[in-house]
Amino acid sequence: MITYKDSGVNIEEGYKSVSLIKDHAAKTLQSYVLNNIGSFASMVEIPEGYKRPVLVSGTDGVGTKLEIAFKKKKYDTVGIDCVAMCVNDVLCHGAKPLFFLDYIACGKLEAEVSSDLVKGVADGCLQADCSLVGGETAEMPGFYAEGEYDIAGFVVGVVDKSKIIDGSTIKEGDVLIGLSSSGPHSNGYSLIRKLIPDITTDFNGKNIGDVLLTPTKIYVKPVLKIIEEFNIKGMAHITGGGFIENIPRMFKDKLTAVINKNSFPKPAIFDHIISLGVDETHMYNTFNMGIGFVLCVAKEDADNVIKSLKAKGEDAYEIGYISAGGDGVCLK
Fold this sequence. Notes:
Residues 171-328 form the PurM-like C-terminal domain. By secondary structure, this protein is an alpha+beta fold.
C-alpha cells in the first residue's frame, strides 16, 4: 500500500509541528481574538475606541537572509524579521497591528525547525503587540530542497480614519527624524551573500554570520506612543530600495528629502560592505545604512520628538529636511 509518506509528506511530523507551534501562538493572543488556533479560520473583532476604523494590511517575507539561517542552523530569529517587515509597513500609516498570519514552506518538514521559526514569529508579534492567530505550513517534497524553508507573513492593523498618516501635510521646511536600525534588517542579502560567502569569519570580535542574523527592529510601540503625543506628518519604513526609494513614498507633492549622511552613526557592517567594493550611493539605494524608520514633523516639534523618542529608549536623530522640488532624495 502506498501512503502519503511514501511521496515525501509526513503527516505525523505535521501534527507534531502544529502541537509545538500552538504554545508559541497562545502567548500572543489578545482579548479581541475570538477563537483559538486550530479552527478553519481566525476571528478577530475590532477593539473598542475606534469611531471610524480603517483596516490596514501588509504582507512580506524574509528573503535570502534565510540562507544564512540555514547555514547557521539558527531558525528562531528570522520569524522576528518576517513580522517586522510587515508591521513596520502598516505602522507608516499610523495603524496599530492587530493580528498576524504566517506561511512556511519546505521540502521536508522538521517539527523542531518549524517550531523555532514560529517562535520567532511569536516573539515578533509580542514586540509589535499583535496576535498570531494562524498560519500555514506546507511540505512540498521535490519543490523545495530538504533543509530549506521559506517564510512569509500577513498583518492587519487598524487606525481611525481621521488619524490616518498619509503625508498630505508635508511641506518645505519640515524635519526628518531617523530611528536607528539594528543592521541590514532583511534587505540586500542577495548582495551580502555574494560579497560575504564565508559566514564563519570573525567580525569585530563576533561571528559575522551571527551579526548578519541580527533581527529587524520593530518600531511599533514607541512610534504609536509618539503619534499620540505629536503631529506626525509622514513616516517611512526603510526597507528594500533604501533611502532613495522609501523616503519619497511618504510625500504627496513633488518635494525633496535632503539627507545629511553624517547626522547619524552607521553600523560597522555597512562600512565593511563598502570596503568590499560597493559604491556608497548604491548603498543608500539598497540598505538602510543605520536608519530603519523615518518620521516627518514640523520644524518646531523636532527637538521634542527626539527627546521623547530617546526617553522611550530609541536612538533618534535629526537626519535632514524637506525642500521644494521633485528630486526624491538628495544626499549631502
